[in-house]
Amino acid sequence: MEVLFDRELSVRPEKVPFERALEQMIVLLERYSGLDAHRSDLRARTAIQNFRGNYEPRPFKDLIIWGITSKRLGFLVKCISSRVNNPLSQLKNAKRIEKIVALEQVRFKEDRIRLQQELREEFFAVLKSQGRPETAKRLKNSRLERLFWEIVMPSNLEEIQKKVMAKTANIVPE
Q: I need a labelling partner for 29 at 20 to 30 A (CA). Which of 40, 58, 108, 150 fits?
């Protein structure tokens, strides 16, 4: 990353340190991750709508997918920024947990509803412990995958994985 960054920087007029560029990427991805919210950043929404009109095949992806994708990319950039060993394997592990959180493999509707409620309560507890009650309120009716990406960070991935696995151990195959 640093080698590619230095090469890219050599042809650009502005000179920004690598760490500062990562911080800017995280801020930008945070703006784009909130597109599914009622009161999202208007400039970010306009930028994405313009991109979608020119490059995204129809039918357009749901804005929730844009939010999840932005959060995934933000997670990867945070892994790189915090110098985690093998950031791509961390992202792969987080995506594996996301698939479990989606509860697509749960056969019975009663089990799925119960697990969704338990995981939702668990994720909201994490949001509140992170000091983000306004985010919890904004994402009250959001999909579990979106909530998962809202709370997961390189520093708490293992903890969240343990919580998800404990809730889904008997029903969802690993």
A: 58
End-to-end CA distance of the chain: 32
From CA 39, how far away is CA 115, in angstroms rounded? 29
Mean pLDDT, range 25-47, rounded to an integer: 81
Tens-place pLDDT, residues 46-99 = 888 888 888 888 777 777 888 899 999 999 999 999 888 899 999 999 999 999
Task: Give the mean model confidence (pLDDT) for residues 130-148.
Answer: 87
Is-cis flag, bond preceding 13, omega within 30? no
Length of the chain (residues): 174
Spatial CA neighbour of 73 closest among 87, 56, 55: 87
How many of the other CB atoms lie within 10 Å of CB of 151?
A: 22
CA angle 92, 17, 154 (to 5 degrees): 25
Residue carrying the six token digits 């992806």 = 61
